[in-house]
Amino acid sequence: FQVFPSGKKRRMNITSVFDLVSDTQDRVAASPDQLWCLFVSRVLLTKVPVVDLRHAEDMVMVPLLMIKAARIAYLDDALYNYRYRTSSASTTISLKVVVRFEDAFKFLMENMGSDYRTALEFLCIKLIIYGLLYNAVRCKWDNRKLKEKISMFEREFPLWFNNRYIGLLPLRKRIWILFAKHRLFLCLRLYCN
User: pLDDT tens digits, residue range 117-128?
Assistant: First the structure.
């Protein structure tokens, strides 16, 4: 459950997509963005390069763990309460956050390998088109800088909008990436308010 300061709880339905996956690439693409929802063996942790990031570190560690795991099991039971705090690192408005998302993108590009190119593209959509741009808009970046980041991403993944995993994203994120695809920066700014 995600627990908000008001005391309201929201069930985080992280495992529902695992019934739909058929291979490692699907599992990697569908992997959760949070490391806290996994039990990982110590041996497996030694097989994955450790990323030195303060933001977006889970988004790069979890897929790499999924690739290296010989076996994965999951429980649909909620065993953990994640407390949402307005002062947490994930809600911080800072240029450092934007830089960390780009660092995470570079880390994945260097460490994931070409066998999982479609999953990698999807993870990078989440990192750059959603994570980096969302935080950049919150930091009041101008349109020119936002366009530069989208163009940088599109040089690596020119047909990113056709990625088969985009449907895994919640509707609000799919709307965001549609705005980003069409460079509707005013809509992105309104989304953040």
Answer: 999 999 999 999
